[in-house]
Design a protein that fits this description.
186 residues; alpha/beta; 4-stranded antiparallel beta sheet; 40% helix; globular
């Protein structure tokens, strides 16, 4: 409801969204958008582009009925979201990596994570998980630990925004070690 209210408010004020960036596909980052975008009457003409890292090779291979909701719900939400975005013909980049950039007005925004290697590793893991689903094999889950090193979190799009009086980083759930390396680099 909050996501829908925010997006509707922007449109009602006659404003647009130049870039809507989802850091990664965990439900706490995409579920509100998935529910909103899947509403047939939701207006999205004011959204110019979207960034969402999602394995393109697997997109046509999965149907919602193949996804056990209690185990793989983030993938189900991500697929529903990406199919709704595409149906609405909103330009959507699904491989956003370090070095990509966009300038909004006079504000440069640079992607500092994930690295190409990290995203490729996530895509390989993602595709393996989908293969397990197709074979009806149980999922292997990553155990909980102090640091969440799931491949989904490793795919988090991390943005560095250059402002006149400093830089701001939006990190999603990127790995602490990756953030430390990126901050040192940039």
């Amino acid at each position: 409801t909050k996501f829908k209210t925010l997006i509707d408010g922007i449109r009602k004020r006659g404003e647009c969204i130049d870039l809507l960036c989802f850091s990664h596909i965990d439900n706490d980052h995409v579920k509100g958008a998935e529910l909103t975008f899947c509403e047939g009457t939701f207006e999205t003409s004011h959204i110019k582009q979207i960034w969402l890292n999602l394995s393109a090779s697997a997109m046509p291979l999965v149907t919602v009925d193949q996804l056990p909701a209690h185990q793989f719900i983030t993938v189900e939400s991500a697929y529903k979201l990406i199919h709704s975005i595409r149906a609405r013909k909103i330009p959507c980049a699904t491989k956003v990596i370090e070095g990509d950039h966009v300038t909004l007005g006079d504000i440069p925004i640079t992607v500092i994570l994930p690295t190409s290697d990290r995203l490729d590793a996530y895509y390989r893991k993602f595709d393996q998980d989908l293969e397990h689903l197709r074979e009806k094999k149980p999922h292997l889950f990553i155990g909980r630990s102090r640091t969440d090193t799931s491949s989904i979190n490793g795919s988090s799009i991390t943005l560095m925004i250059d402002l006149p009086d400093g830089k701001v980083i939006f990190s999603g759930d990127a790995f602490a070690s990756d953030l430390t390396a990126a901050v040192t680099k940039y």
